[in-house]
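Lab manual, section 2.4: Encoding a predicted structure.

Procedure: take the sequence of the chain (183 residues), apply the prediction step described in section 2.3, and record the output as structure tokens. A sample record is shown.
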Amino acid sequence: MRHLGNDVHASALPKTARRVVAGLGVVLTLAYAAHALAAAEDQALAKASQNPVASLISVPFENNFNGEWGPNNSNQNVLNVKPVIPVQIGDKLNLINRAIVPFVSQPGIPGGWYLTTAPVVTANWEADNDDKWTVPLGGGMGRVFRIGKQPVNMKMAYYYNAAKPRFGAQWILQLSLMLLFPK
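Recorded output:
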């Protein structure tokens, strides 16, 4: 038989076998095995990407375009960069580092006021279908102002959980105070 590396040339086989090897032989078996392996890896990655404490670095980019926004019906664009970096600090303990860095392009509302919404939809893949999802709907407002010389960003938002697990919260009130340190 003639060889090229580890592959057997079809021309070294009888003519009746050439069609089988070239069309339906080991190539499809290997392709199937590679596809199954890739699918298993993808499934494991999909599961890990939904686990907030997985040992996986991820850098999600979330873009929100809001049309006809604000009192002047302007357009607003918000790109949130949300890196998640776990650091192992013990055999059974990870420190999960997550920052949300928003890049906002919007017309201003007088007085430093703004509208906000950032619902976090969650799913417990191991729960029964009726208890799997939490889907909040809502929003709020915020304002940038100063306390003395210190710039501060304060916001308040309310979310109603349109879908929730049996013992999940019916609503969420979110209060946020952020000290700002411009360069």
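Check your result against the sample. The first strand starts at residue 3 and ends at 4.
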